[in-house]
Amino acid sequence: MNLRGVGVSPGIGHGPSYVLTVSVPEPPEGATYTGEAEQEKERAMAALTQVAGELEARGNQAGGKAEEILKAQALMAEDPGVVVKVRSLIDRGLAAPRAVFEAFTKYRDVLAGSGGYLGERAADLGDIRDRVIAQLYGQPVPGLPLAPEQPYVLVARDLAPADTALLSRDEVVAFVTEEGGPTSHTAIMARAIGVPAVVACPGATGIPAGVEVMVDGTSGEVRVAPAESDVADAVGAATARRAALASWNGPGATSDGHPVPLLANVGGPAELDAAVAAGAEGIGLFRTEFLYLDRADPPSAEEQRRAYRAALAAFPREKVVVRTLDVGADKPLAFLPAPAEPNPALGERGLRRFMRSPAMMDVQLAALAAEAAESTGAGLRVMAPMVATAEEATWFTRECADHGLTDVGVMIEIPAAALRAADLLAMVDFVSIGTNDLSQYAFAADRRLGAVSALHDPWQPGLLDLVAMTAEAATRVGKPCGVCGESAADPALACVLVGLGVSSLSMAPSALAGVRAGLAAHSLEQCRAAAQAARAQPSASDARTAARVHLPGLAGLGL
Amino acid sequence: MGERKVTVAAEVGLHARPAATFVQRAKLAPMDITVTKSHGGDSVNGKSILAIMALDVRQGETVVISADGEGSEEILDELAAIASTP
Predict the structure, then answer these.
(1) Among all residues of chain A, which has the CA nearest to that of B11?
(2) What structural domains and CATH numbers belong to chain B?
(3) Is A447 assigned a ligand-binding role in the annotation?
(4) Of A2, A214, A499, A508, which sits with the fewest C-beta atoms within 10 Å of its C-beta?
(5) In angstroms, rounded to a whole number, what is the distance separating the alpha carbons of residues A109 and A115?
(6) Going by C-beta distance under 8 Å and a sequence separation of 6 or more, which residues neighbour residue A34?
(7) Which residue among A114, A137, A160 closes a domain?
(8) CB contacts, 8 Å: A107 with chain B
(9) So what's the pLDDT on residue A25?
């Protein structure tokens, strides 16, 4: 069996499949049992206790933030309200799985109705319910294996940040998801840890559990039970290509010497080693959400400083651009409950949320300022996410200045900010284009929705126009304009971005070698010609084809 | 009937870790524990994390914790301390 999806993180990965079952079937309505009510109740209680015990044990093993979350979930599994409800439903004749289903669903609906933080916990209850029902049916319990015997290919309908937060490449050799697009969390996570991934792959969850699967994260091909010789060939070709790319090193530049600093996108201190090893010339995007997610209390200034210090220690002479906290209704914080929003992507997130949480903002800016003052290298810069207007940019710059931070920028992710880039640039020292969100907002297409993922082609001429407008405005005033979205990770598109006037590129470390080799094979003039040709086309696929005509060196590199 | 009236001090309110710690302690008590928002409303089972969460007590709100029977005073003191920990 062969499947095809969209390759979003390059490379070949193969191993036994692990199919993450997200939905356990609903036990039939009105299902009854044979035998005594007491026995049926005991069966239900045993399953609840078993699941609570497992959650508790997983918590002990995970430690830290995960421990807190899992232990609270264990309490929910054995909640006295649930227990009473399950027992009375069994007394009324319902079979244990159905009684469990109805009891948890009742509480889940109550919480979901409250929205916000409580609404998020409703999803937890659904997960606990499924575990208990799986237990009663004798099915494997949904969730990731704790200590897999060998690295596996993770197959799922879609993955949430919480599913993938604790994964490493020692455990997972590839991701395959039925939904999601090139900028979904699965794709970003996969690129960050350097694991091949295919998303928007119809039929993926039909892959039998445990069967050997080979994933080509470049072509998007997923082969189920491939011949051993095919695996060997594919792995050999990928290794040869990597070796060829690795032979290019040194700072990023075009063949005629136009410098283009190649920086790394980093999601936390754990990813710093990979960025240094890949030869990054600094950090173009240091995300700070890892400091805040999945915990009960906000991080202290000292804890934050340790993280920023680690980044500066990894890049002592290079620049490190730290993005202030970027959360919203889709990434809820336990200590900052937010009301539920019908459109979280269009809601109070990024800088908007920051403006409304002055205490939290103060701690982060003060921690950044303290590290900036102590660093001796090219140093630390700060930028804000989700900036729409020049007023917001002014506000942020002023807040930074109050804390003593001087090198301040904003991200260009909202079409209005790109259209009026000149106004924003007048207020800040640099801009950085986040092409993923810019694409989401320009095309009115949810990044997480597989059904609209075709619109999220980074080659869309409309998106290229917005990048060009921003880069031109920056060039006019002599300020840097970087790209830190996933566009920068495509070697052909990286050349086009440079041709549009972008001054630095920041990407997942695994993409640096390809982009460095691609740039080095072309002159600035070729990049400009490719950019012009791409913008002259009416569609993304035409733009890609037209650009490549001017970038003859890519084919020879296998890019 | 023993009672303690406490103002919840944690920034997250009686949710997340404070709620879990509260319920873990309440569960060990032999007698019933109830929690009521002081501005009226239903009394809920203090051993039920779901009931406590659904009560939705925010930072700065006051609740009444009640328990009756031998040892209830000590337990109420401990629970009041948990609820008022910032």
Answers:
(1) A335
(2) 2-83 (3.30.1340.10)
(3) yes
(4) A2
(5) 10
(6) none
(7) A137
(8) 50, 54
(9) 80
Residues of chain A with C-beta less than 8 angstroms from the C-beta of B11: 297-298, 335
**What is the ipTM score, two decimals?**
0.91
Per-residue confidence (pLDDT) for residue A555, from 0 to 100: 77
DSSP assigned state of A109: H
Report which residue type is found at A90.
I
Structure tokens at A451: 């059904």
Domain limits for position A99: 37-137
Query: Which two structure tokens, joined as six digits, stand for A129?
Result: 């319910």
User: Using CA atoms, how far apart are residues A392 and A230, in angstroms rounded to an integer?
Assistant: 54
Contact B54 A296 (CB under 8 A): no
CA-angle at A262, arms to A260 and A265, nearest 5°: 145
A530: CATH: 3.20.20.60
Which pLDDT band holds residue A268 (cuts at 50, 70, 90)?
confident
Nearest Cβ partner of B20 from A71, A107, A114? A71
Indicate whether A26 belongs to any domain: no
Cβ separation A298–B53 shorter than 8 A: no
Residue of B14, B21, B25, B50 best to disrupt the A interface, most CBs of A under 10 A: B50
The order of strands in the sheet holding A12-19 is A2-4, A221-224, A212-216, A12-19, A152-156, A172-177, A197-199, A6-9
Same-domain check for residues A543 and A450: yes
Residue A558: the pLDDT is 67
**Distance of CA A377 to CAs A240, A320, A427, Å?**
37, 10, 25
B16 vs A335: CB contact, 8 Å cut-off? Answer: yes
Q: Are residues A213 and A271 in the same domain?
A: no
Does residue A167 surpass a pLDDT of 90? Answer: no
